[in-house]
Amino acid sequence: MKYYCIQLLSFFFLSLNSQVSFAQENTYTITGKVVEEASGQPIAFATVMVAEVESKKPIAGTTTSDDGRFQLKTEASDFYIEVSFLGFQNKIFAKPLGQARKIDLGTIALSENAEQLREVVVQGEISRTEFKLDKRVFNVGKDLSTTGASALEVLNNVPSVNVNIEGQVSLRGSQGVQILINGKPSIIASEQGNALGTITADMIDRIEVITNPSAKYDAEGTSGIINIVIKKEDRKGLNGSISVNTGAPNTHSVGVSLNRRTEKFNLFSQLGVGIRELPNDIETRNVDLTNNRTILSKGTEYRNETYYNIVLGTDYHINETNVLTLSGNFAMEIEEQPSSTAFAAIAPNGDTSAEWERNEVTEAKNPKLQYELQYKKDFKGDEDHTLLFSALGNFFGKDQSSEFVNTTIAGDNNDATQQTRTDFKEAVFTYKLDYTNPFTDQWTLETGAQYVLNDVSNDYEVNNLVNGAFENDPGLTNIFEYNQKVLGLYGTASYEGEKWGIKAGLRLEQTDLSTLLATSGEANDQDYTNFFPSVHTSYKFNERISLQAGYSKRIYRPRLWDLNPFFNIRNNYSIRQGNPDLLPEFTDSYEITSIYILGKTSLNLGIYRRYTTDVIERVSTFENNISTYRPENIGTNQSNGIEFNSKYSPVKWFTLTGDFNYSQFKREGMFEDAVFDFKGDQWSAKLMAKLKLPVDIDLEMTGNYESSYQTVQSTISDNLYMDLGLRKSMFKGKAVLSLSIRDVFESRIDESQIAQADFEIYNTRQRGRFVSFGFSYGFGKGEAMEYSGQRRR
């Protein structure tokens, strides 16, 4: 693997150097300085453009630095130069006569344009939301694009979207949301890439939120899709950024991003390294109501990581209608889990009959490799007429060894030593072909195919220390093999007029799944084909009021860890394992949503209904004070809900955003002759206040509430917690200082309780307060970016 990384790095820098050498002989270098005519002060971020004389099409461009200077290169032969800045009159220069390859325009003085300044006042600069048939579009305005914020922070400003402490994105409170870049999976958007924080707000044109995806998209999942659309304009030259972050618990990272753009190539890279400490305080109480015996456990579980990350890639613009992209990402995680748990056995009379401590020492190495190949063709005359092919590969491995030692403190002897070994390998390949043809201004046809292969092998072994020697435990040792292939074909047609539009589609997916316990020979094969229809419509009453309605059929296929019967014996009185016989969930999803813009306020109101069959629930069985959690298919679920979100900016320096979601559900089902029929409800709310303080300081406060709710066996407690953030922009957005505090009052506690006729189980888990301080600086034409340092798996 080290050899391949060196080869990849060598290719990257050789490509970079070879382009420069080849282009030098035919390259014009244009320099100058832009100032205000009235004061003589330099103008930063003025636009300098080189364009073709006949077509007027831009060839190359850049912006001026803080001192007003610029340098621009082009290989074109027939061009003119235009210098512009908002509120000032443009200046145009013809290509000088002669053969000189260096063009110095000297000092360029721009005069104010009073007419243009008046137009600026009425231009929309505030981020706003609008409807587009099957999606909600959040247009990124100057209020966000000039702050130096990352894509993660922009997402936190989108109604219904939230980004948690680890950089995980949720939509309407549900995680598992799929994130796309320009409509496709990307290394940058994946958790493994850890690079989403390097996309700055000024690079984002809009964010599309799809809560009820059409047949064009994967039928997998119910959380929805977030598509980040990047602006098309390129900043030529070398752009880059460096970020340094530190925090508590012990968390530190450094990230460097580099980007080199020419007229044909866009070369990009990212290097990152960091350490992260993830403690969790755990408490569990298992009560056997038959013999009145109780097992208490309490301790701190750690997951300490050291990680290294490298991203290399290039976009090759074959010509103005064809682009080829190749990128790769390699990461390595080194884990340690020095955890300790105290146990106590409580007798029926309330006396403690035994106390012991269970200590864990775990070490693991997790290599990750990801590649992406993409070809995109834009057809002349219509930028929305496209053909896109992409191939994405993911590889993940885990080489882990653990030792668990029980040490008796008092009472009955509980001394024991166990060792486990895990050799895990996973490969996922995704091939996708999409064709979009807007054959008239109103009618659009989309069609395509997707093929996903997922191949996994998990070799798990448990050994017990008996009479001074380790003996294999055959009941807990096996090789689990998992292979899934999904082929999807789709077609959609849509009509979109000035006020009304409709989009309908059908997707066909064929799934071939097989699992095998190699040692015991237990196999489970599933082969099924399903149709997934979708219909969406929208109506625009006027500029302020729009309505959208949609239906789609969705599927949730059990994940690897839902199917894998192996389990972690960290706490051998609270065991979680998978179920190889698990079936997929199917959901019919209906939604009606509306948007209303009233002055400085935008209001969104929606109602939804979901009907799910073969619902997957974790069920606990209880024996000898040991609780075993296993996913099962239990009946159906009907859920009806309402969602409301709003954004209000009474003044420029204050913005208030609120989200509210309420749902009622009805469960019906049976498991092992037990009837699980019940009704319930749950709701969540988020209120975020953002204040612009003097000296370019932004303050953000977010309050979150999640109500209690009921599952088949459990009652999940409610949660109320607050997050706080400060951001200081410096050097006109080139540098950013940031401070974030998640769970300010340490009030976020995951708590659940199971009460059955013959046993009770109580579980609580708390992460605690998380404080992070960061500094980012952009150089070249780059702006301050953010290296998120999130946990990737």
Walk me through what this model shows:
The model is unreliable at 1-24, 114-124 and 783-793 (pLDDT under 50). The strands form seven sheets. The chain has a 28-stranded antiparallel β-sheet that branches. Strands 8-9-13-14-12 form a five-stranded mixed β-sheet, with no helix packed on it. The protein is built from five helices and 47 strands. Helix content is 6%, strand content 64%.
Could you give the count of β-strands? 47
Structural class by helix and strand composition = mainly beta
What would you report as the Rg, rounded to the nearest angstrom? 29 Å
Instruction: Provide a count of the helices.
Output: 5
Quick summary:
The protein is mainly beta and 793 residues long.
Keywords:
793 residues; disordered N terminus; 5-stranded mixed β-sheet; 28-stranded antiparallel β-sheet; 5 helices; 47 strands
Annotate the secondary structure layout.
Layout: H1 2-23, E1 28-36, E2 47-52, E3 58-63, E4 69-74, E5 79-84, E6 91-94, E7 102-110, H2 114-122, E8 128-132, E9 135-139, H3 142-145, H4 151-156, E10 161-163, E11 169-171, E12 178-181, E13 204-210, E14 225-230, E15 237-248, E16 251-261, E17 265-288, E18 293-319, E19 322-336, E20 339-346, E21 352-378, E22 386-411, E23 416-437, E24 443-466, E25 469-472, E26 478-496, E27 500-517, E28 522-540, E29 545-556, H5 560-563, E30 574-576, E31 585-598, E32 601-613, E33 616-623, E34 626-633, E35 636-651, E36 654-668, E37 670-671, E38 674-675, E39 678-693, E40 697-706, E41 709-710, E42 714-716, E43 719-730, E44 735-742, E45 750-755, E46 759-766, E47 770-780
